[in-house]
Backbone:
């Protein structure tokens, strides 16, 4: 699959400059994280496509590891336990996070037909993967507009405002997930704090 995307990159992202090494596939690198208020392309000089390619390459590496884990589960002679599924999903969250980061970053690029085609393709793959995981018991949390619950949510920022009820979640910085009714990963959220006494 990585070879297929590699050929697509060569035809879609031609640059008149010398090619740069975007990602050393022989080294294990953690996925790129985009922090609060941080531009994904911050520090990029000139062409911003290499940052998008780095994120896509990282996602493809994560997806290859995920496919290996899925093969291990499929070839097992016995039915996987809930604990094995939970461990599989914990490792799979990196792939889902990569999709979210790439979609967010691509939407910030100048509008073009190529970008829109990428968004549609990636969105379709993300949707199919999410539905498959949901069918096996993984659920994403969508707590925006709800009161914060510290058993499910990690507060990463507080916004002082009186226009939103106190302790209401106003933004999700990283999705949280549940598996069979149990929290697999807390959602990282931004919460409103009322200033009036």
Residues:
């Amino acid at each position: 699959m990585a070879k297929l995307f590699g050929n697509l990159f060569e035809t879609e992202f031609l640059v008149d400059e010398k090619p740069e090494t975007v990602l050393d596939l022989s080294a294990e690198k953690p996925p790129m994280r985009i922090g609060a208020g941080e531009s994904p392309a911050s520090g990029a000089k000139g062409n911003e496509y290499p940052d998008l390619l780095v994120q896509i390459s990282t996602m493809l590496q994560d997806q290859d590891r995920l496919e290996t884990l899925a093969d291990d589960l499929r070839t097992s002679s016995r039915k996987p336990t809930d604990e094995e599924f939970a461990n599989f999903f914990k490792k799979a969250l990196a792939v889902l996070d990569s999709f979210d980061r790439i979609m967010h970053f691509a939407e910030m690029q100048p509008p073009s037909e190529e970008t829109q085609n990428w968004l549609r393709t990636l969105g379709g793959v993300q949707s199919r993967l999410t539905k498959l995981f949901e069918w096996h018991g993984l659920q994403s949390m969508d707590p925006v507009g709800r009161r914060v619950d510290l058993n499910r949510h990690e507060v990463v920022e507080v916004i002082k405002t009186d226009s939103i009820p106190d302790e209401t979640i106003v933004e999700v910085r990283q999705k949280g997930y549940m598996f069979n009714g149990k929290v697999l990963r807390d959602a990282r959220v931004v919460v409103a704090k009322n200033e009036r006494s």
